[in-house]
Amino acid sequence: MQEELLHSVVKLTKTRDVDSLESSLLSTIHEFIGCQEVSIYKSISLKDAADVECCLSLQVIEGKRYRWSQSEKVQSPSSELLSCLNSACIIAVQSNDGIERRWVPITLADKPIGAIAIVSKGLGSSEQVLLNAFCCIYENYLTILHENERDKLTGLLNRQTFDKKLKQLIEKQVLKHYKTTKSQQDRETHRETVSWLAMLDIDHFKRVNDNYGHVCGDEVLLILAQVMDGFFRATDLLFRFGGEEFVLVFEPATREEIESLLYKFVELVRITKFPFVNKLTVSIGVAKVGPYDFPIHVLESADKALYFAKENGRDQLCFYDQMEPPQTPSRDEDGDIDLF
Ligand SMILES: Nc1nc2c(ncn2[C@@H]2O[C@H](COP(=O)(O)OP(=O)(O)OP(=O)(O)O)[C@@H](O)[C@H]2O)c(=O)[nH]1
User: Fold this and answer.
1) Cross-strand partners of 57
2) Residue ranges of domains in the chain
3) Which atom of ligand 1 is nearest to 220's Cα?
4) Among 17, 114, 165, 286, which residue has the least CB neighbours within 10 Å?
5) Whose CA is nearest to atom 24 of ligand 1?
């Protein structure tokens, strides 16, 4: 038993990304603690505590068969899950048929960000100790992985993780696409709700540095990142690509939804009071992320649209497929930015 336990800890800490860490955690919990179901829930929004997603779930069906399910928005989270998320305390309830439901909070930087939920026939004290220990190992390792994926100044995702995260999103999209669309005609109609990538760049940022110095420039960058973090949903991927350039990846939405969201953001930046500078504006280039696109091509398209927005007055957004022909050359060709 001790040897197996050690192996499971080694296996858990061997993973290098959050998704494999989570599937490893659930299979380890299932292996060592008899349960019917074990799931990971995460808060999606900082503003609304009831906005919760079930990221991954392992369910035992008919003794030795399992079913995995992932990324499902929880329509009405149970009151126990919500109190676990709000209080960061373990909650356990037992029904008359002896089935126990237990929620163990997951915290990151002292903030509850989710919970592990386990359905069992009741856990003995040694099983509870084991479950809490697995959750602590997961939490500690999650903190390390989280720090490695983040930009040190702004706390947003860093450029090194971009390829991996975008590939994961595209893979999920392909899977969903095939699950939900049976015929070629269905696939055509589903193209309307694709994911979107936006490349965002601060206008005339050099002037901020030149007038007030690099340290003040850094503070402006930090505040802009906080504004972004507060405005977009937790499921949107926000990257700092370096300097004053950011990349945002949104989950499937219609063009109208993304356009309206980004217009609101451009307006929000315009009216936000930043330190030192009187006025700050951003330009944004937007491109579709289709299920069969290569990340580099999507990035190049968004970059061209961003260049177009800059060339045509800044403080605006431009969609790649709505640019006026002839298309402007990518800044990549000018040697202005280095894509990979
Ligand atoms: N403070 C700070 N400045 C940075 C950082 N990285 C890059 N920069 C600065 O960002 C500025 C980018 O300037 P440019 O590429 O000329 O673009 P811009 O002045 O924003 O003009 P447009 O993009 O054309 O609107 C340069 O002054 C860089 O030194 C950083 O990490 N911190």
Assistant:
1) 39, 69
2) 2-149, 157-334
3) 1
4) 17
5) 204
Q: What is the DSSP string of 209-241?
A: HHHH-HHHHHHHHHHHHHHHHHHS-TTSEEEEE
CA distance linking residue 250 with residue 166, whole number of Å: 10
CATH class for the domain made up of 2-149: alpha beta
> What's the 305 CA to ligand 1 centre distance in angstroms?
19
* Distance from residue 230's CA to the centre of ligand 1 (Å): 23
Q: What is the CA(211)–ligand 1 centre distance, in A? A: 12
| Helix, coil or strand: residue 143 | helix
pTM of the model: 0.75
Per-residue model confidence (pLDDT) at position 186:
56
Q: Among the atoms of ligand 1, which is closest to the Cα of residue 336?
A: 15
- The CA distance from 287 to 255, in Å, is 10
* Domain 157-334: assigned CATH number: 3.30.70.270
Q: Which of 206, 216, 222, 307 to mutate to test the pocket of ligand 1 (most atoms within 8 A of CB)?
A: 206
Q: What is the pLDDT of residues 198-235, one digit of tens each?
A: 999 999 999 999 999 999 999 999 999 999 998 998 77
Marked catalytic residue, from 244, 251, 267, 324: 244
State residue 53's pLDDT score. 87
Q: Packing angle between helix 255-271 and helix 214-231, nearest 10 degrees?
A: 140
* Model pLDDT, residue 39: 96
Nearest residue (by CA) to ligand 1, atom 11, is 206
Q: The tokens of 316 are what?
A: 């605006």
